[in-house]
Known about the structure:
Helices cover 33% and strands 24% of the residues. By secondary structure, it is of the alpha+beta class. A hairpin with a 3-residue loop joins strand 1 and strand 2 (24-31).
Amino acid sequence: xxQKDRNIHTTGIIFRKTPFKETSLILEVFxxxxxxxxxxxxxxxxxxxxxxxxxxxxxELELVLHKTNEWYILKSATLIKSHLFEVDFNKNILxxxxxxxxxxxxxxxxxxxxLYELLIKYFNYLKQVxxxxxxxxxxxxxxxxxxxGIELNVISCVNCKKxxxxxxxxxxxxxxxxxxxxxxxxxxxxxxxxxxxxxxxFSNIYQIGNILNKIEISKSTINQINKIFLIHLSEHFHKKxxxxxxxxx
Length: 249
Ligand SMILES: [Zn+2]
């Protein structure tokens, strides 16, 4: 009787690698079909192993895996693209920040293809950007939230529901923004005040690619916007999210 082919063919991106025993590595791989999986690359650190170079972080690979009860074992890999190749420091950080978010997210298999394609699109777009790449990261995050079913509405006020461009603050309990008209001093302790610069970035975020060269983004805006995203994620997933990579940006 012929043995069944139990090999699995998939495409994945390496998020992390950890040494395992003398000569092996455990790779955390984000795949199109199975979301995030752990793959053992047996003996890959042995001298003359030509595959070691394939295991760089953010390499996108065509993978052949063998599944045992608890592990995926790497049978072979072919490089599709090395996403960090010739990427400058700031873009590297912005790419790592996306990975940091994906590593903290619970990604069900039904969302993994969409989030995979979004990540690749984000990497490719970012590479063409010369300035203010952080805004592209925020636009990416909004799309991640929408795919994950926890959209952050940056267009309408959480109170009057009208489309607004004069938001006063972020209102965590209502998962959105409150406009100047609806703001009352009694809400002072429930909202996080935001600057006009933050409001203006959110109102332009879906067209932000066209105006990157015309805007300036201050450090405090970066901090405020990152904070809003982290609060939104933490509220929905009931755990603390962090963005350590961006501390260097
Ligand atoms: Zn309002």
